[in-house]
Specification:
The chain is an alpha+beta fold. The chain folds into 4 domains: 282 residues, Methylamine Dehydrogenase, Chain H (7 Propeller), CATH 2.130.10.10; 88 residues, no CATH class; 243 residues, no CATH class; 85 residues, no CATH class. The protein is 39% helix and 21% strand. It is built from 28 helices and 24 strands. A hairpin with a 5-residue loop joins β3 and β4. α8 runs antiparallel to α10 and α20 crosses α22. It holds the Pfam family TPR_Vps8. One of its GO terms (biological process) is endosomal vesicle fusion. This is Vacuolar protein sorting-associated protein 8 central domain-containing protein. Belongs to the VPS8 family.
Length: 807
């Protein structure tokens, strides 16, 4: 479990609902039989005259009249046109997904989408106030604090963020709210703006306390999903009580002492969700006080209860049961006497708590958003939640797939078959192996989908034909790759699509992602040749280079690839062909050195030229470490010999074939000129590699050669400090032997730059570190130089304490 607290702390805090505590196997009536009140005159006398929550709604006495009339429906459903228009604009402009999460406060409306976008509107004038754009992970839940100054955002990937409406900035970003692999189904503010209740897609409930200046992040498990998956949370009684609603039970938990104070069973049909809402009402007894009433429903039954405090005990008293003529899928208690309910047919009802259904409106034109994807774990790639599985009606997947094929709903059939094969659909039939059955239908489905694809459109614009091709070709590729039916992809799909120029181009665009993921298995050389020429014709050089290093070299036209890569300076491709086709690892190194030699003296380098140098440094690091570039692994025999070959190339005195007559150590000198800091980082990173751990003193030699080179160059404070920092790190690691003369000379040179040193703090720290690990330095000379520099306080104090303070 993801938490800051220890496992022992969390286990101690769990609400253990075992057989000794859980509700006995009895009905709700039996559990509450001794607490049900008869609404007699004595009870009613204790209620507030103005509200009479437990009696009847306020209404005047009927007046006899001969005339009759019909009142307008109390339900008024209207579209928030401005908000709807802005949502469509965002979706059309950059496909930010469809609305799937909503939160409403007294001042604002927040809407979250399936692609991670959150839009916050002013409630009064529907003006867009803020937009929060995430990394594409779907928003699963939202909640405002009471002051409507903060918005909590939960994501399907398990991340939680808080957004300040005052500053327009994200205040907190917490990635370990729930267990790994679970999404956040619901998040609620708990009284404090730093405390939250979170429900994950595994049915577990957590209390999250955000960090402050004096307190770290704290997460504790309030309820474990192994006791029964919770599907809904509700804060009640001024945020003192947390109601947990599972598919079979209702739990009330006190957040003050983390104690279970009430539990009861829920009855109702398994294919309808349990529902809960509450109201705060005033009850008149000896003195006026406010209490919480709540309604809990499932199917067509709604029960009303209220909380009654007697001394230190809490009683839950049921005072009314309401039966409806339809099944509910959502419910909201809007006023003491009225509920708004959505039925299974997506109709909205107004329910009088005494009279029952008093108004109904059809909202078939409104596209309701469901949280099915969150329960299924689609956002995180998780398994189907047992909660959703419990609520779903059982059906035969084989019959469903066959029915889709018979009705020629090819796209739907392919998607359903892929969900079965990848395990997203649970096998509920015992007749056969469902995955094997779906796999056997893939060739037929691919042929049918291919026929649908090449048939095109009867009429329309070219843009519509492009959309048609993209939709179906992407699905064809996905079906073949997911099922590893590459024979279908190459011999059937591509052979058909290559006959049309447009469909062929879209096919190549669609396999880009498959190539980047390294999932294009054993492609035919003809397809690779066409694919590479397509990328060059589209000037998509980045994808071309990425494809070269991911497609087996024996499938490529080596002459064409090398010519193209050299022409466009795509040296990842050059290195790959050298390595894989010729087993040559030094050739590309020397070729890049030759190209970089022409650029290193330029005052300003382009991004492309800088990238070339960075690739060279990364290639050197991989070779010295015995790893393949840019990814993968080397054959064992090459991994053993390659580091020494590259080392000898780097420290060669005259360069390639001894042709450099004017400059000594040309390759090391070139790397220092290009980017000394990154080159020193490469040496430090590789200092633990086998090539430098031998008794031959190779690391010592290259460090000494570098010192000779920088001593012969124009003196630069930054260069000497960077080099001295590298030496200091290696001495602390005991990777090199201390040469006292060289170190004394280095310290003297570094301190001689005086106040012109930009990184005086780094220089001083390195000098002190060296003095602590190296004995025999000329410390008095160092002290005299350090005292000339007012910034070098640490050096002076270190040496003064050594020589003048008693030990």
């Amino acid at each position: 479990m993801s938490s800051i607290a220890t496992d022992e702390d969390i286990v101690d805090r769990w609400i253990e609902i075992d057989d000794s505590i859980s509700v006995p196997e009895q009905t709700l009536d039996e559990i509450l039989a001794d607490k049900i009140l008869d609404l007699d005159e004595e009870t009613l006398s204790g209620l507030d005259d103005e509200e009479l929550l437990f009696a009847q709604p306020l209404q005047s006495s009927p007046i006899s009249s001969a005339s009759s009339y019909t009142l307008d429906s109390p339900l008024h459903i209207s579209e928030l046109e401005s908000i709807a228009c802005q949502l469509r604009t965002w979706s059309d402009r950059s496909f930010r997904g469809h609305a799937r999460a909503l939160a409403v406060s007294s001042a604002n409306i927040a809407i979250g989408t399936s692609r991670g976008l959150v839009l916050i509107f002013d409630w009064e004038n529907q003006r867009l106030l803020h937009s929060v754009i995430a990394d594409g992970c779907p928003v699963s839940c939202l909640d405002f604090n009471k002051a409507s100054t903060l918005l909590a955002i939960g994501y399907g990937s398990g991340i939680m963020r808080t957004f300040s409406l005052t500053t327009g900035k994200i205040m907190d970003d917490v990635g370990n709210v729930v267990q790994p692999g679970q999404g956040v189904l619901q998040i609620l503010f708990c009284a404090s703006d730093r405390r939250f209740a979170c429900l994950d897609s595994g049915g577990s409930v957590y209390e999250l306390t955000l960090p402050t200046a004096v307190r770290s992040l704290k997460t504790r498990c309030v309820f474990s999903g192994c006791h029964g998956e919770v599907v809904y949370l509700k804060m009640m009684d001024d945020d003192n009580i947390l109601a947990l609603l599972s598919l079979k039970k209702l739990f009330l938990i006190s957040l003050r002492n983390m104690r279970l104070i009430y539990a009861t069973s829920l009855d109702g049909p398994a294919n309808r969700p349990p529902l809960l809402d509450c109201q705060t009402v005033t009850v008149k007894e000896a003195s006026q006080k406010r209490t919480t009433a709540f309604c809990v429903g499932r199917g067509s039954k709604v029960e009303f209860c209220y909380l009654n405090y007697t001394l230190s005990d809490l009683q839950v008293i049921r005072y009314r049961v309401l039966s409806l003529d339809f099944d509910m899928i959502n419910m909201k208690w809007i006023e003491p006497y009225y509920l708004v309910v959505v039925d299974a047919g997506e109709k909205v009802h107004m329910i009088d708590t005494v009279q029952g259904d008093i108004a109904v409106e059809n909202i078939c034109d409104v596209q309701l958003a469901y949280a099915t994807a969150d329960f299924k774990g689609l956002s995180t790639g998780g398994n189907v939640s047992a909660a959703l599985d419990y609520m779903a009606e059982l059906s035969d997947q084989v019959a469903q797939l066959e029915s889709l094929i018979d009705r020629q709903q090819v796209v739907t059939a392919v998607l359903f078959a892929l969900d079965i094969i990848t395990g997203k659909v649970t096998n509920k039939t015992k007749r056969l192996n469902l995955k094997n059955f779906a796999y056997s239908r893939i060739p037929t489905l691919v042929q049918a989908l291919l026929a649908l694809t090449v048939s095109g459109l009867a009429n329309g614009k070219v843009t519509q034909l492009i959309d048609h091709y993209k939709k179906h070709i992407q699905l064809l590729i996905r079906a073949c790759v997911t099922t590893n039916r590459f024979d279908l992809l190459y011999s059937t799909v591509y052979n058909c699509l290559e006959k049309d120029t447009l469909s062929k181009a879209i096919f190549f665009e669609s396999i880009d992602e498959v190539v980047l993921d390294g999932r294009l298995v054993d492609p035919p050389p003809e397809l690779v040749f066409d694919y590479f020429h397509h990328l060059i014709s589209e000037s998509n050089l980045n994808q071309f280079e990425a494809a070269v290093v991911r497609i087996p070299v024996e499938k490529q036209d080596i002459h064409f690839v090398m010519t193209t890569c050299r022409k466009n300076r795509l040296y990842d491709g050059v290195i790959y062909i050298y390595n894989k086709a010729m087993s040559d690892y030094i050739g590309p190194l020397e070729e890049i050195f030759d190209n970089l030699t022409e650029l290193v003296d330029y005052e300003v380098l382009s991004d492309c030229e800088i990238a070339l140098g960075n690739k060279l440094l990364l290639y050197i690091q991989c070779c010295l470490s015995g790893r393949a570039y840019p990814f993968g692994s080397l054959p064992e025999n090459i991994a053993t010999t390659l580091p020494l070959q590259v080392y000898r190339c780097l420290v060669s005195y005259k360069g390639k074939n001894g042709t450099s007559a004017s400059v000594t150590y040309p390759y090391l000198r070139l790397l220092i000129k290009f980017d000394a800091v990154q080159f020193f980082n490469v040496i430090f990173t590789c200092s633990d590699s086998d090539i430098f751990n031998s008794k031959d003193g190779r690391l010592q030699r290259i460090i000494e050669v570098i010192y000779q080179i920088i001593s012969s160059m124009d003196r630069s404070a930054v260069l000497f400090i960077n080099y001295f920092t590298l030496v200091a790190y290696l001495l602390q690691k005991k990777a090199i032997l201390p040469a006292l003369g060289t170190i004394n000379e280095l310290i003297e040179v570094v301190l001689s730059f005086g106040e012109s040193i930009e990184r005086i703090t780094d220089a001083e720290r390195s000098i002190v570190d060296v003095m602590r690990v190296v004995n025999g330095l000329d410390e008095m000379t160092i002290l005299r130089q350090a005292r000339k520099l007012p910034q070098c306080v640490i050096i002076s104090n270190e040496l003064f304490s050594r020589h003048f303070l008693p030990s």
